[in-house]
């Protein structure tokens, strides 16, 4: 809760900093704001509280996911230095929008009432629609913003429909009341409940970019400026999956059997489409878009299996995924800015010209592919554990096969970096970004070597 | 603690090597590997061959999931550890005549791989085992991919995808087994050994685990990555792959397959034996037709590993002990062979058998060492190959006389392709390529002499090594036949 208030105030303050025309001061200020919010968030650890007549609550679940989101933002921003230098960029506004969108994200992980969920989704999404179009002279960025806005508002409408139907069936917006009503529901209103649930599920599935509602992902990711893409694929996804899990566990845990088949179908489809789609890409950025779809699929394995291991598995995996993805996008940003392309070939010989960037990218790719020594490996182990506890062996077989496919496309960039001849010059990276990249690598390896530190926090 | 030191020292040394520029990297790496050799020998001296696991380290790793960082050394592990610490310094020394681009990365990767290998050979927890299993793979991928020959990108990628694909199944099986353990769950080796699973479950678990190990060895028909990868990798990479890494597959099957799913093994053991014996004959016949020396030895390796795999799945004392001793012998011989091929290639610029000839005339030292290693490979009595193959064939014969007879062809076929290669390359008239062939340098002798000593040591007094593994193997057989 403190972090919601703080970030809202900081967002407005930040706009005033923008008025002072001192662009250089912006980034340190925002980083400071985020660090303060992160600290404030951690104060709520083990201090459950509820606010606004129980519409919002902070517990370890919300604190954990809030921390992941704020930390991710903290890691993402240092890569936006080139936007500071660029002319015509309304940087203060973008940073403020990011902070506001973070507020929406925090509401999505701490709601107790569907209205707060809806408001949270809206706050987060509307900021993202604008940010997607922030490179306003670039036609692709315009396209991304337009697509994201049209599809996004459509799906928000679907969520609202669903909430209305759920209200009709149960007479409640509160998760606990819905849960009570759902378990002993009158057969006549049961279809209404399930219809409402399905619509909300479809809406959230869109937000986390899971199949079959993933079509916006590659285009929007490609058009959005890389730093903000990295925000979209980590913070937005984390908020979405946490909200999803909270909805299912707090409100619909009692009717698990009803939604299980739908969720399994979505999970398998997402895994297949994400991984196979990624194989066909030549652009690193589009590959990462499809990879984000596939990781939504992995995360949904934990949702589908739905047991006491799930939430910890989701938290660990979200963090591991976010850290690796931010590192990958960070390196991609420097390479594509310098070499003017985000195809795999732009990475040729990076191992010779920029050993550090190449190493960071390698660790990120190994983590996303789930190879040991990295956080991604234990993320997968914990997810698979959750599913195997339910004896879902065949789901694991699909996931294992898809992980092998994943190695194929993640290694293409490693091959380009180390096994092809260099094209182009050494790329200059500013010290803050270098420091961030190194921190991301350290965190990834730490999660891969002593996973006990991050496991079973909730 | 000693085990932890043995595992971690190469990784620490690798970090140090990364900081060194130029030629110093090799010297420091060699020094670090010698220190590691001393540590290995120290473990050997303090080891009591009584079937127990010694130098145990058992620390919580993922405490809340009951996963322990448990490593230790028993007789089976010790032989593998000794093989690794013995070969790595020789492999590093054997690269002296090459100048690699970015030497510090090259040698750091070798040392880093050593950590992975030793972790695999000492792990007593399934997740620790899997962890190191993959840790060993990443360095060799880069060694082969960055410093390899033609088509290295495609070939090493195939190798990587192939092996990771197999090991993901192993991981899934481990996670499944972990959930079958009682109470708060445990992934320790002993916990897996105590599991009682029904035959149907063990049947699919067997394949999940077997695929991972079969690809690594490789057993026919999972071998298709192997000849290309061996041929393409730089000499040091090939030595690592064939000398030590393929033993990971055999060792893995010995410790994590046979005792864990004994009912699965009794259902499918026959099939595996047939596959292994097909591999023996298949590898040998293809080896006869090879023109490239490196490829010839690669195929011969498929043949020899087939015999070791067959010995494993006989589940009798001779078979398992034969596999143990033959793992050592094969490691020594194949590293020696690949090194000699590397010497010939770097002097003449070719590995084509047809293009060479008459090398013996000015190279007495090379000829003798080559011959000794070659005779070890074809299992001549008094050499190391004989002890291993004899025990293995005895094991297979006990299991099934016909299979023993067919597997025995390996000795005849092995002699055919090896002696044919030796004859064409070393004897005959000198030609313009082999005209100025010089004998071994000091460095090369320093690599080959220890290998030749080992050929005779294992050949003349195999008990030094057999007694190390004997109690552990007997204990393992008890677990398998529980």
TrEMBL record, chain A:
NCBIfam families: NDH_I_N. One of its GO terms (cellular component) is endomembrane system. This is NADH-quinone oxidoreductase subunit N. It comes from Rufibacter hautae. The gene is nuoN. Its EC number is 7.1.1.-. Belongs to the complex I subunit 2 family. NDH-1 shuttles electrons from NADH, via FMN and iron-sulfur (Fe-S) centers, to quinones in the respiratory chain. The immediate electron acceptor for the enzyme in this species is believed to be a menaquinone. Couples the redox reaction to proton translocation (for every two electrons transferred, four hydrogen ions are translocated across the cytoplasmic membrane), and thus conserves the redox energy in a proton gradient. InterPro entries: NADH-Q_OxRdtase_suN/2, ND/Mrp_TM. One of its GO terms (biological process) is ATP synthesis coupled electron transport. It catalyses: a quinone + NADH + 5 H(+)(in) = a quinol + NAD(+) + 4 H(+)(out). Its main location: membrane. It is found in: Cell membrane; Endomembrane system; Membrane.
Automatic annotation (TrEMBL), chain B:
One of its GO terms (cellular component) is membrane. It is found in: Endomembrane system; Membrane. The chain crosses the membrane at residues 6-22, 29-47, 67-93, 105-124, 130-147, 159-179, 191-215, 236-258, 270-289, 296-315, 327-344, 365-387, 399-419, 440-460. It holds the Pfam family Proton_antipo_M. It is a multi-pass membrane protein. One of its GO terms (biological process) is ATP synthesis coupled electron transport. Residues 124-410 form the NADH:quinone oxidoreductase/Mrp antiporter transmembrane domain. InterPro entries: NADH4_N, NADH_Q_OxRdtase_chainM/4, NADH_UbQ_OxRdtase, ND/Mrp_TM. Its main location: membrane. GO terms for molecular function: NADH dehydrogenase (ubiquinone) activity; NADH dehydrogenase activity; ubiquinone binding. Keywords: Membrane, NAD, Translocase, Transmembrane, Transmembrane helix. Residues 60-117 form the NADH:ubiquinone oxidoreductase chain 4 N-terminal domain. Belongs to the complex I subunit 4 family. PANTHER family: NADH-UBIQUINONE OXIDOREDUCTASE CHAIN 4. NCBIfam families: NDH_I_M. This is NADH-quinone oxidoreductase subunit M. It comes from Rufibacter hautae.
């Amino acid at each position: 809760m403190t972090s919601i208030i703080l970030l809202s105030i900081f967002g407005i303050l930040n706009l005033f900093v923008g008025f002072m025309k001192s662009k250089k001061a912006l980034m340190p200020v925002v980083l400071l704001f985020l660090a303060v919010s992160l600290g404030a968030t951690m104060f709520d650890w083990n201090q459950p509280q509820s606010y606004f007549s129980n519409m919002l609550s902070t517990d370890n679940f919300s604190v954990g996911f809030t921390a992941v989101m704020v930390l991710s933002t903290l890691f993402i921003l240092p890569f936006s230095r080139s936007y500071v230098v660029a002319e015509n960029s309304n940087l203060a506004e973008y940073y403020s929008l990011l902070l506001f969108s973070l507020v929406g994200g925090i509401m999505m992980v701490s709601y107790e009432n569907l209205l707060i969920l809806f408001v949270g989704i809206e706050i987060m999404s509307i900021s993202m629609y604008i940010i997607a179009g922030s490179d306003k002279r670039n036609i692709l960025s315009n396209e991304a913003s337009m697509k994201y806005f049209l599809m996004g508002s459509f799906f928000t409408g679907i969520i609202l429909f669903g909430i209305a139907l759920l209200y009709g069936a149960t007479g409640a917006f509160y998760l606990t009341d819905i849960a009570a009503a759902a378990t002993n529901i009158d057969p006549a209103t049961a279809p209404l409940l399930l219809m409402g649930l399905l619509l909300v599920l479809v809406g959230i599935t869109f937000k986390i970019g899971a199949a079959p509602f993933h079509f916006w992902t590659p285009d929007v990711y490609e058009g959005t400026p890389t730093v903000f893409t990295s925000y979209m694929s980590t913070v937005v996804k984390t908020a979405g999956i946490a909200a999803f899990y909270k909805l299912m566990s707090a409100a619909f845990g009692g009717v698990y059997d009803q939604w299980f088949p739908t969720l399994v179908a979505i999970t398998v489809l997402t895994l297949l489409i994400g991984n196979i789609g990624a194989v066909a890409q030549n652009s690193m950025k589009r590959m990462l878009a499809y990879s984000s779809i596939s990781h939504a699929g992995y995360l949904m394995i934990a949702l589908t299996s739905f047991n006491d291991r799930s939430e910890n598995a989701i938290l660990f995996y979200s963090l591991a995924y976010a850290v690796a993805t931010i590192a990958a996008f960070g390196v991609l940003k420097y390479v594509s800015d310098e070499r003017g392309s985000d195809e795999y070939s732009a990475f040729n010989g990076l191992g010779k010209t920029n050993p550090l960037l190449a190493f960071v990218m390698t660790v990120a790719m190994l983590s996303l592919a789930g190879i040991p020594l990295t956080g991604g490996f234990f993320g997968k182990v914990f997810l698979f554990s959750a599913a195997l506890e339910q004896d879902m062996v065949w789901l694991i077989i699909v996931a294992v096969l898809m992980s092998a496919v994943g190695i194929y496309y993640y290694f293409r960039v490693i091959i380009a970096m180390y096994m092809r001849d260099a094209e182009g010059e050494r790329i200059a990276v500013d010290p803050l970004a270098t420091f961030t990249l190194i921190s991301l690598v350290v965190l990834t390896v730490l999660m891969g070597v002593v996973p006990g530190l991050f496991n079973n926090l909730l | 603690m000693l085990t932890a030191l043995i595992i971690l020292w190469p990784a620490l040394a690798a970090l140090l090597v990364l900081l060194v520029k130029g030629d110093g990297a090799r010297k420091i790496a060699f020094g670090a590997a010698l220190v590691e050799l001393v540590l290995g020998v120290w473990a050997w001296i303090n080891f009591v061959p009584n079937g127990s696991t010694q130098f145990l380290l058992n620390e919580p790793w993922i405490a809340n999931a009951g996963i322990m960082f448990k490593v230790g050394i028993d007789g089976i592990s010790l032989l593998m550890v000794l093989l690794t610490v013995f070969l790595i310094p020789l492999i590093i020394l054997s690269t002296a005549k090459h100048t690699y681009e970015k030497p510090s990365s090259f040698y750091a990767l070798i040392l880093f791989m050593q950590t992975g290998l030793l972790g695999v050979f000492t792990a007593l927890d399934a997740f620790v085992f899997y962890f190191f299993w993959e840790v060993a793979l990443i360095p060799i991928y880069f060694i082969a991919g960055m410093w390899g020959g033609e088509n290295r990108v495609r070939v090493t990628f195939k190798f990587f995808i192939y092996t990771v694909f197999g090991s993901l199944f192993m991981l899934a099986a481990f996670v499944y087994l972990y959930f079958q353990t009682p109470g708060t769950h445990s992934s320790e080796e002993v916990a897996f050994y105590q599991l009682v699973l029904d035959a149907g479950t063990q049947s699919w678990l067997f394949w999940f685990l077997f695929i991972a190990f079969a690809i690594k060895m490789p057993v026919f028909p999972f071998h298709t990555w192997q000849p290309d990868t061996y041929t393409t990798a730089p000499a040091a990479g090939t030595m690592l792959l064939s000398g030590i890494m393929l033993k990971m597959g055999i060792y893995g099957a010995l410790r994590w397959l046979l005792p864990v799913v004994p009912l699965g093994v009794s259902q499918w053991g026959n099939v595996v034996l047939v596959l292994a014996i097909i591999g023996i004959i298949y590898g040998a016949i293809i080896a006869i037709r090879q023109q490239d020396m490196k490829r010839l030895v690669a195929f011969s390796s498929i043949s020899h590993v087939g015999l070791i795999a067959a010995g494993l799945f006989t589940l009798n004392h001779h078979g398992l002990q034969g596999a143990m001793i033959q793992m050592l012998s094969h490691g020594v011989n194949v590293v020696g062979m690949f090194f000699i091929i590397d010497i010939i290639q770097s002097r003449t610029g070719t590995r084509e058998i047809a293009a060479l000839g008459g090398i013996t005339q000015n190279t007495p030292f090379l000829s003798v060492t080559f011959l000794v290693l070659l005779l070890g490979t074809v299992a001549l009595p008094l050499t190391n190959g004989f002890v291993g193959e004899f025990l293995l064939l005895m094991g297979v014969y006990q299991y099934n006389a016909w299979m023993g007879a067919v597997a025995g062809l390996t000795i005849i076929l092995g002699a055919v392709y090896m002696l044919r290669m030796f004859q064409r390359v070393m004897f005959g008239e000198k030609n313009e390529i082999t005209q100025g062939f010089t004998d071994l340098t000091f460095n090369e002798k320093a690599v080959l002499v220890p290998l030749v000593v080992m050929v005779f040591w294992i050949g003349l007094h195999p008990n030094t090594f057999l007694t190390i593994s004997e109690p552990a193997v007997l204990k393992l057989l008890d677990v398998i036949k529980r």
